[in-house]
Specification:
Rossmann fold, alpha/beta, 18 strands, nine-stranded mixed sheet, Dihydrofolate Reductase, subunit A, seven-stranded mixed sheet, 15 helices
Length: about 450
């Protein structure tokens, strides 16, 4: 963990700085032998606001030739401006300008000596080594201390250098993703950049993965392109990394209803939340709904808003009461498990994509653990419990949900079909609580409860 007793990164002054990318809070920190470091901060980056997405952070090494003089021997100046631009696009983030990092930590005059060797054909790594310096002499203790002082324990790091992420993590900063900045090579710096990629492990142009494709394939990349890919990696990467998981999802009004008293639920939440729902479907093996949801909404339960494979549709219907023309029974877009009680009567002939699964019925219907057990035996280890309110609440009350995504829409319905309901505690001290993150989805707020980590 970071040694917070060191005084090398003590904040000594705060002011503001207006730039072409917007206005930043600017904090000056002591360090680097008296040169000082600067942190530029835009927006709420502490996670105390409406959106707990890990903030974008650039730890930028000073480069007089690139940052101030516009040198094309490197890409430092362009990386600096690109980082500020990405922060401005999101409206929040931090750029730490590290003094004492000139020439990867060897100093300005030594860097110019290395340039002279490079003029004679020596690459950037060997030039440092010939001068008696390490290939990279930078240290990040001050950067980690500044991040901790700003309240940032987890970040999305803007860097093509995987070693920078490793060193920050060794100092106690969780790098949830690393994204190269969108800066193109130039003829003047192509050899320099190629050397860093080949000899120092920096990301290659075009090497950044398609994050959503990787996640739907069950892989969690460590780097992401700027913008949407970075957001997707932060939002869904931990879900994929957990392996077998049971997820609850529900959208409801601000006063806790998922539909009006007539059953009308089209639509409680907005389009961004529906896209989020489709992403969850694409990341699981099975999606579970109760019979009432099928009767009221006739959902397709497939992945349509985003690329991905539709999960197995699981309908909990003890009495076999859903209509034969329901989309889950009539449309073969994905397999359907129709879960009914042993005494229930089902049609003699069903489409090939429908399998009838008999489960024992208790007083309150199917026991959630029996449902999960049956799905797991079929290799369906990643399960999304999507609705309705009674079904999600039953799995929550049984303690079987690892995550719960509860999206609240800015609506007051007044009376209707309730959302989350379960027998709670008589006192608030006994209320169910868990670590949470919040995401802004258009006009809606999605709260992610990490129930696997609850006390």
């Amino acid at each position: 963990m970071t040694d917070t007793t060191r005084v090398g990164a003590r904040r000594v002054v705060s002011t503001t700085l207006a730039t072409e990318h917007g206005t930043f809070a600017m904090h000056g920190y002591d360090g680097a032998g008296g040169l000082g470091h600067v942190a530029l901060v835009m927006g709420d980056v502490t996670g105390e606001g409406l959106d707990d997405l890990a903030p974008l952070v650039r730890v930028h090494s000073e480069c007089l030739t690139g940052d101030a003089l516009g040198s094309r021997r490197c890409d430092c100046g362009e990386q600096l401006q690109a980082a500020l631009h990405e922060i401005s696009l999101e409206g929040r983030g931090v750029l730490i300008y590290m003094r004492g990092h000139e020439g990867r930590g060897i100093g300005l005059l030594a860097k110019l000596e290395a340039y002279a060797l490079q003029d004679a054909g020596v690459d950037t790594v060997d030039a440092n080594l010939r001068l008696g310096y390490p290939a990279d002499a930078r240290e990040y203790d001050d950067a980690a201390e500044i991040l901790c002082h700003l309240g940032l324990g987890r970040i999305r790091l803007m860097s093509s250098n995987p070693d920078k992420a490793v060193k920050l993590e060794e100092l106690g900063i969780e790098v949830v993703s690393r994204q190269p900045l969108p800066v193109n090579d130039r003829p003047e710096n192509a050899y320099y950049l190629t050397t860093k990629r080949v000899r120092m492990g920096h990301d290659s142009v075009g090497a950044v993965p398609d994050v959503w494709h990787e996640l739907t394939e069950g892989r969690v990349p460590r780097s992401a392109a700027a913008g949407l890919d970075s957001v997707l990696l932060d939002r869904y990467g931990s879900l994929v990394a957990t392996g077998p998981v049971t997820i609850g999802q529900l959208g409801q009004s601000a006063d806790g209803f998922i539909a009006a008293r007539t059953g009308d639920a089209e639509f409680v939440t907005g389009g961004e939340d529906r896209e989020h729902l489709h992403r969850l479907r694409a990341l699981v093996d099975a999606v579970v709904v109760g019979a009432s949801t099928v009767v009221a909404d006739d959902p397709r339960l497939t992945v349509r808003a985003v690329p991905g494979t539709s999960p197995v549709r699981v309908v909990l219907d003890p009495s076999a009461r859903i209509p034969a023309g329901s989309r889950v029974l009539a449309e073969p877009e994905s397999p359907t498990l129709w879960c009914v009680a042993p005494e229930a009567v089902v049609p003699a002939s069903l489409p090939p994509h429908v399998e009838v699964l008999h489960l024992p019925r208790g007083q309150a219907g199917f026991a959630p653990d029996a449902v999960l057990g049956a799905l797991h035996r079929r290799g369906l280890a990643r399960v999304l419990v999507e609705g309705g309110g009674r079904t999600v609440s039953a799995f929550l009350a049984a303690g079987l949900l690892d995550r719960l995504f509860l999206t609240t829409a800015p609506l007051l319905i007044g009376d209707g079909v309730p959302g989350i309901r379960f027998t709670g505690s008589d006192r608030l001290a006994g209320a169910l609580s868990a670590p949470v993150r919040r995401f802004v989805l258009g006009a809606d707020i999605c709260t992610e409860f990490d129930l696997s980590a609850r006390a």
